[in-house]
């Protein structure tokens, strides 16, 4: 989870195309899932969130509970798409946007800020497989606690204007 967040912070500032497709390297989502997401973009969506249609098959009860809570918070803050930790296809500027979150909740915050800013955010059901490589870390207690703190930070940022969102500074040379 931390490596993904760091990689994303480094990759977005140097992406060159108008659209960015985010998929993990652990082979949970087949590349074929890009096709229905691209169709949604072609139909006018600005930010497409792949919603894991088969969570019951690939997640434990505890992981589904964590995911359910995360989705509810993201929706309550204004994003119509409720699975922001999944794969995404979005306009580059909607992903490379200032965020107040410092960890995994930044994924949800991008969708929230995109929707609040007038972007058309849509969900597309996608196939998800059990992790074929690496180790699941998204439901670890420390990740969940950091996400909850980030959710509070985002609520304050959206409601009070502080803390101010910021763009992550990449660690790569251009």
Outline the structure in words.
With 174 residues, the protein is an alpha+beta fold. It contains seven helices and four strands, in the order αβαβααβααβα. The protein has helices at 2-11, 34-42, 55-58, 61-76, 92-95, 105-116, 141-160, and strands at residues 19-22, 47-52, 88-91, 121-126. The protein has a four-stranded mixed sheet. Helix 4 (61-76) packs parallel to helix 6. The chain is globular, with a radius of gyration of 15 Å. It starts with a helix and ends in a 14-residue tail after the last helix. 30% of the residues are buried.
* Cα Rg: 15 Å
**Nearest-integer average pLDDT:** 82
**Strand-pairing-aware structural class:** alpha+beta
Low-confidence stretches: 1-6
Portion of residues in helices? Answer: 40-55%
* Widest beta sheet: strand line-up: 1-3-2-4
Series of H and E elements:
HEHEHHEHHEH
The count of helical stretches stands at 7
Secondary structure topology:
Layout: H1 2-11, E1 19-22, H2 34-42, E2 47-52, H3 55-58, H4 61-76, E3 88-91, H5 92-95, H6 105-116, E4 121-126, H7 141-160
Parallel strand pairs: 2-4
Antiparallel strand pairs: 1-3, 2-3
Helix pairs in contact: 4-6
Notable features of this structure?
four-stranded mixed beta sheet; 174 residues; alpha+beta
In short:
With 174 residues, the chain is α+β, with helices and mostly antiparallel strands. It is 43% helix and 11% strand.
